[in-house]
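Work Package 3 (structural annotation) set out to generate three-dimensional models for the target panel prioritized at the project kickoff. During this period the team completed the workflow that converts sequence records into discrete structure tokens, so that structures can be stored uniformly alongside our sequence database. As a representative example, we reproduce one entry of 159 residues exactly as it appears in the project archive.
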Amino acid sequence: MSIWYFSSVFLHIILAAFWIGGMLFLPLVILPEIKQHPDRIAILYKTGMKFRFYGWIALVGLVSTGLLNIYLRGMPFTWAFLSRSDYGILVSWKLLIFIGISLVSSTHDFLFGRKALEELQVSDNKSFKLLARWSGRINLLLALVMAFLGVVLSRGGTI
């Protein structure tokens, strides 16, 4: 293996740690601490917007380094590889889960999360807050499954 491959894998792991760590940091650290804060909506908005910016950079970096890892490892990126080998099938699952993460993230970031913050400013109705919370949880679950599949792939590629 080349230094480029190891560098790509290293960056992939750092980006995954940032992505998952950020999704855990918001609900476990930020939200409990600002629950009674008078400016909690502004704090949540600023924190969410900042993480959203870097989170999307991380997602682009993850798909880029993931594809680069396949290439640098000498794996063919063909339908036969993705559908017939155990390793390729796991890569296919990671790609499908990544598409799911992208869709859930888009919905969470650009619809539910934004609407939830707007809703909290004007009323006690919390339907979008519930949707934002659950879409965030689903996204975290998908990210953890993705990380697990990454570990399986790095250890040989069969379950």
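The mean pLDDT is 88.
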